[in-house]
Amino acid sequence: VARDLIDQGWIFYWVTRYREGKVSLGTLSEKLALPYSDLIDLLAGLKVEAPIDFSDYLAGVGILGARGRSK
After folding, report:
1. Of 6, 2, 28, residue with least CA distance to 15
2. What's the CA gap between 14 and 49, in Å, rounded?
3. I need a labelling partner for 31 at 20 to 30 A (CA). Which of 3, 10, 20, 58 fits?
């Protein structure tokens, strides 16, 4: 029981840091030792939204567009 509480606390700690924008999705995945698909399911189950804003979205679209033009 104690180990389970420690594990749940560890998950809560890292998810909170992700929610606050202090760690990336990659870091969260590494710290919790979960693949991205499981991590996305965990975050959705906890109703945690990605801490990004519109400028982050536009930067991502720009990167994808640049990759498409370079081929």
Report:
1. 28
2. 14
3. 58
